[in-house]
Design goal:
Layout lengths: L1 E9 L3 E8 L4 E8 L11 E2 L1 H21 L2 E10 L5 E4 L9 E2 L7 H9 L3 H8 L8 H11 L1 H8 L3 E4 L1 H9 L6 E3 H4 L5 E2 L4 E2 L1 H7 L8 E3 L10 H4 L5 E6 H8 L8 E5 L3 E8 L10 E8 L2 E10 L3 H9 L10 H6 L8 E3 L17 E3 L7 H25 L6 E5 L6 H11 L2 E5 L4 H13 L6 H5 L4 E5 L5 H19 L2
Parallel strand pairs: 1-5, 5-13, 9-12, 14-20, 20-21
Antiparallel strand pairs: 1-2, 2-3, 4-7, 6-8, 10-11, 14-15, 15-17, 16-17, 18-19, 21-22
Helix pairs in contact: 4-5, 10-15, 13-14
Length: 493
Amino acid sequence: MKKFIISIDAGTTSNRAILFDLKGKLIFSSQKEFTQFFPKSGWVEHNPEEIWSTTRKVLKDVIAKANRLKGQILTIGITNQRETTVLWDKKTGKVVYKAIVWQDRRQAEYCKKLKKQNKETLIFNKTGLPIDSYFSGTKIKWILDNVPIARKLMNKKQLLFGTIDSFLIWRLTKGKVHATDATNASRTMIYNISSNKWDDSILKILRIKKHILPEVKDCADNYGSTHSSITGKSIPITGVVGDQQSASIGQCCFEPGSLKSTYGTGAFALLNTGTKKIYSKNRLLTTIAYRINGKTTYAMEGSIFIAGAGVQWLRDRMKFFKKANETEKILNSLKDNKDVYLVPAFTGMGAPYWNQNSRGVLSGLTRDTGPKEIVRATIESVAYQTYDLFEAMKHDGLRPRVVKVDGGMVMNNWFSQFLSDVVNVKVFRPKVHETTALGAAFMAGLKIGVYRSLKDISKNWSLEKKFTPKMKNKTRKALINGWIKAVNRALII
């Protein structure tokens, strides 16, 4: 009998369920988009019930496929958009407010207040994170302060908090398990990454009571089993990893110094630093890469808020094309960018700037500028933002020489080559493109003994295509100088 692992990939714009064989080969995938809500400038929300319904739909699809193949589903792994925040009633299961998405900036002013109160050093030293509305802690506080029922339920010990993984686990197990993993916990801004515990001092600052928080487990661990009414028969959940850490695992970045960069809605570079926490002096994040058998491996991370979301903007708002894959043809049709730059600070700027109030800037426009130039500038901006991250890593004493890439954008060969040219390192694209989902599957399989070790998992990684820098240094420097000038215009705001 064929044996499979299911990975649930709860993303920012869609949910997917993917069926993998035990060698990490993708057998079948089902995907369903859900609605994005923008109620005010800088606010981004999802409907948790729609997240749940789309998850159930795609899960049903892959289970049906496994049944048609007469295969056995051994376990489920979950990976998810990380900082997105949901609060719900423990007794009824009803959410008290929409999910506040990681991109949401509504707590920017409150974050400024915390900084003025000199809380930044304390929070950074404990969590590895700067004070920013990107993270879950301030989102929890906003709901508690602005949704009366939320604080009332918390005081009655009837309120639960979760990132999307935790919310789905609770729903899949019919409320039996309220848990998350160490990687998701490390993105909340209320989790001490040294002690591996929720931090009482930060919780006190934010007026959050500990009893609403999930139990924090290893990435490969027992998260209960799905209820048979949801999945036909009960299936164990044995792997949970935040999406960027999961992509790093899927790319088999297990050695200190190994680096991956994922290009989805946002873009995230994660560099393994081993058992050593390296606190960046250049505004990168220190985070947990994974925790296995109680042993924590750390990483340095750079976060870009707008990557694929910029392509979505071009498609859905600007109407420059109908399908994202049309962009490669557009890019190849132009000899250069004609000095047009887009700084896509639609929701502020992430690392290394952490400017919550900056907004998008399109510069270098002339009468000759048209949709093609704006498309190219948007996609080029992702490579330039990656350059900023890598430069920050270099200033922290870490010198990337190879980067493993994944995500929808890197299927564009033009972009992958331009990325290699701008950051001036080799770019490796793997054969299995769904590395985020794959990482969760690997963790789930590790827990039940499908894989004996991380070294055993690494045997399943293979290269599809390598991109090597070809751009002349003079050209690279000129393009980067143009980008720096454009960024400075955005940061003035």
